[in-house]
Amino acid sequence: MVHIKEGYSVCPHCGVRCPWRSTGFDGGCLATGRQLVREPDTQNGLMQSVRHPIVFTGEARTYRPLWRRNVLLLCLTLGLSFPWALTSKLRYLYGHTQVAGHALGYHANPVQMFLGNLVGMVVLNALYYGIAQLGAYAWIGVATLQLLMAAALPFMLHGFLSFQLMHTSWRGQRLHLDARPRDAWRAMAVPTLIYIASGALAVWAFLMLRADQRDAAWLCGGLSVTGFCVGLPLLYVQFKRYQHRHAGWGSVRNQCEPDLSHGQSLGLSLKVGLLAALACVLLVLPLTWLLLDWSGWEVRALLARAATDSTAGWSTALVLLPGLFMGLAWMMALPYPYLGASLQNRLWSSTAHEALRFESQVPMSALLRLSVRNWLWVVLTLGWYYPVAAMAEARLRLQSVVVWVRPDLLGLPEEALDLNQRP
């Protein structure tokens, strides 16, 4: 490392400017994980970091009974048992993930989550009921409410992330989010505004279609789909950057800037958005067109009936939802794994502290092949293959991560460590 002023170092391999302390870690590129660890220097108080691959011990045969019970309860309770299902799933995944020999823990109370969801549902239903009393102006009230909820999305994501971290522990100590709600707005303002604009264009396209202005409807609809395809991946990218930048464990927090600039974030989002747009063009639109041709309905007439006849809503759903589900399945099969793996490799490898740093090398081609195979078998087995697919993907992604820990962080003298663990 080449030392410069203000207590920072510039890596000669990648040019990333990272924090440096004379008595802390000074052994490698914190952004790329390139190993440059030197021998312990007792005079300067430096200690050698130890390599610990993350180990995932979950198996389909032990996860399947838990998954089967959660699905059954969700069906019987019409989704009301979701907090219990989510909590049990995360406790299983965290409990079978070992970091430096210690398993993670998840401690959220499902009753607390249920009560929070219940309050939110009651408030939203009360608002929608009040808006429904506006008569012809109800759509203005619905659009306003959706606009306000979209504007509050960064604050809701901040609250969600803070809740998840404060109920996650490692070695008996809870994680935390070292940020304020306004930091979330700064980090996610641009994709949120794109999301809001896309939603407004979708509503405008619907109104133009009902008014038989097809050219304007197609234009607004196309811009809306383009905005969603770019804005939603960008929102996810910014959310993960925000998480890695501000998450902490006790006094340990990330000291490096994310190895993903705003331009690179936008470029990655555009790639994923292109894949999502291809899903829309190749799957959603053709399937919807085939269903319309088979049923003999026209889109404008179908939407007009749905607006005046409540029973026509089922006809609309039967025509439009299959295409949407196919598009979502395509996005989950290819674009989302590509986005997730890309972010994991870039962000985890630039998450580092003087005593703790990570390195992620998810094999992209192997993950994409696994995702396609998993989705194929899930569809062919009507969902029964899901536990096998979930465990296989979790194992591949988690065991592609290595954590470098300084011995004193684990409370162990360096001489007590196995020499095979040292770099």
Written account of the structure:
The protein has 423 residues and is of the alpha+beta class. It is 60% helix and 11% strand. The protein contains 13 helices and 13 strands. It has helices at residues 60-76, 82-95, 110-132, 138-151, 153-166, 181-210, 214-246, 262-295, 299-308, 312-333, 335-348, 364-380, 386-398; strands spanning 2-3, 8-10, 17-19, 50-53, 55-56, 97-99, 102-106, 168-170, 173-177, 247-249, 252-253, 356-360, 401-405. Strands 5-6-7-8-9-10-11 form a 7-stranded antiparallel sheet. The chain has a 3-stranded antiparallel sheet with strand order 1-2-3, with no helix packed on it. A 3-stranded antiparallel sheet has the order 4-13-12. A hairpin with a 6-residue loop joins β2 (8-10) and β3. α7 runs parallel beside α11, α8 packs antiparallel against α11 (335-348) and α11 (335-348) packs antiparallel against α12 (364-380). It is globular and about 70 Å long. It starts with a strand and ends in an 18-residue tail after the last strand. The model is unreliable at 1-47 and 414-423 (pLDDT under 50).
* String of helices and strands: EEEEEHHEEHHHEEHHEEHHHHEHHE
Order the strands across the largest sheet as they lie in space.
5-6-7-8-9-10-11
Number of strand segments: 13
Structural class from helices and strands? alpha+beta
Mean pLDDT: 77
Distance between the termini: 17 Å
Helix content: 55-70%
- Rg result: 25 Å
Q: What portion of residues belong to β-strands?
A: 5-15%
Unreliable residue runs? 1-47, 414-423
- Overall geometric form: globular
- What composes the largest sheet? 7 strands, antiparallel
Can you count the helices? 13
